[in-house]
Amino acid sequence: MTRRGTWLRYGLVSVLLIGIHLGSLWFFSEGVYQGRANVPLFKFPEKVDVFFLLTFTPTFIGLKYLAYDSAVRALSGNYRPPALIVCFIAGYLVALAIDIACLIAASKPIADSGLSLLGSIVQTPLVLLLAGAIIAGVALQKDAPPPAQPGTPR
Fold first, then answer.
1. What is the pTM of this model?
2. What does 31-78 look like in DSSP terms, one character per residue?
3. Residues 53-71: pLDDT tens digits?
C-alpha cells in the first residue's frame, strides 16, 4: 500500500464507476421501460450530462476511497499482517458493491436519482469507517504494553 498504489486505486475505481454509470444509463435508456422515459439509442450521447458524469463519481464517490487508503496507511504504518490486508480489501469491496448498486439504481429513469446517489454518500463511509476502525484497533493493539505477569511488581 504505497502512495502510488493509492492514486492508482483511486483512478481505477473512478474509471470503473464512471463506466458502470454510463453503461447503466445506456441500458436503462432503451428497451427496458416503454413510454416517454426511453431515450432513443441514437440520441443517447446527447442526453447524458457528461460534466456531471465525469465530476460526480471521482469527487464525491472516489475521494472517500482515497481518504480510506490514506487513513489506513497512516494508522497501520509498516505493520501489515495478512489479516489486515484482507480486512482492508473486504471493506473496499463491500463499499464498492454498495456504490455500484446505488449508481445502477440512480440510472433508472423512474428512480429518484438524488436519493439513490445519497445512499452511496451516506452508506459506504460507514462500511469504510468500520473496516478502518478494525484495522486501527489491530494496528494499535500491537503497540500495547504486554500484560503484567501475576506476582510481578508494576
1. 0.76
2. SSS-STT---GGGHHHHS-HHHHHHHIIIIIHHHHHHHHHHHHHHHTT
3. 778 777 878 888 888 888 8
